[in-house]
Amino acid sequence: MTPADTKLGMTASAVPSEHLSDDQMLHLSTTSPVPLRHPGRWVACAGVAIGLVWFADVVVTNPNFGWPVVGAYLFNPQILHGVLVTIYLTASCMCIGIVLGVVLALMRQSDNKLLAYSAYAYIVVFRGTPVLVQLIFWFNLSALFPTIAIGLPFVGLTLLSVNANAVITPLVAANLGLGLCEAAYMAEIVRAGVRSVDPGQSEAAAALGLTRAQSMRRIVLPQALRVIIPPTGNEVIGMLKYTSLASVISVTETLTAAQLIYTRNFETIPLLIVASIWYLVLTTVLTGGQRLVERWAGRSETDARHAVSFAGAVRENLLRTRRVHISHP
User: What is the residue extent of each domain of the chain?
Assistant: First the structure.
């Protein structure tokens, strides 16, 4: 850049654009943009890179991690059976939670005070007690009700009576404890999604002659999905990890399977790494599925954002220099 260009640039930066001549504006429009400097960003990248290299070196060189043991037990049949139980518990408990959560959310929206307060009491009780306590409670339900009877109350007519210990198995107790607790959280998620829809939608549906149930099913809930799906995806991922709590009631899921093995061979850390790897794989799969469902739910948006991969985001936000573009007013 010549001294004249430098002087022109200094003048252009000090003088408003409306006071520049046509020649000066033409020169500004043809010059290359000036990249911004980000020294702090490069320092942060260097610090993160050094930390990652140090962590990788520790993981690879430390023999206490027992990577040969990890490889030997990663696809062990007992571990794979535990993974299948984890997937089953995640799916069944989320089905219970979503279905019951929708019912509770609709009850809270009801004009009937008994229904609304009953749903509110359920949510308070199941959100206010730890999941672990609920699992142990359901597992020991036979201490409270030795037999489970089905019949007409207050008249002494019993149609069916079974032993509670035979019905409430560890797997059933896990479904009850995790599913009923999840319903309380899903009720609030669904209620928030329903309240995010403009009330004018329901009013317009009523003007068209739709009943309240038809309006909720055909108009309100489809629009509320965009608000409901993201937190529901987080709940599914959280439920996948909460299934590890079922180990306290003897459910042989992924963590319990690893525990049963390392109690025999005393390879505690490698077996815990095996369980962690499977949880990480399942969580990654669920995260990808959540993104696909979110994209499907928002497919009608005209201003859909371009999906950027992690590597693309790193290149765009960390490695590329931003440029300042000067245009005509």
Answer: 64-296
Residue 319: both structure tokens together:
């490695």
Q: Please, which residues bridge with residue 158 across strands? A: 151
Q: Is 30 exposed, middle or buried (0-12, 13-18, 19+ CB in 10 A)?
A: exposed
**Which residues does 267 contact at the CB level (< 8 Å), separation at least 6?**
66, 69, 73, 261
User: What is the pLDDT, as a whole number, of residue 238?
Assistant: 92
CA dihedral sign, ordered 69, 72, 78, 83? positive
Alpha-carbon distance of 84 to 254, in angstroms, equals 8
DSSP 122: H
Q: Which architecture characterizes domain 64-296 according to CATH?
A: Orthogonal Bundle (1.10)
- The sign of the dihedral angle between the CA atoms of 83, 85, 91, 96 is negative
Average pLDDT, the chain: 81
The two tokens of residue 48 are 């993160």
Tens digit of pLDDT for each residue in 160-219?
Answer: 778 888 888 999 999 999 999 999 999 999 999 888 888 887 778 888 888 877 887 788
Distance, CA of 94 to CA of 64 (rounded, Å): 37
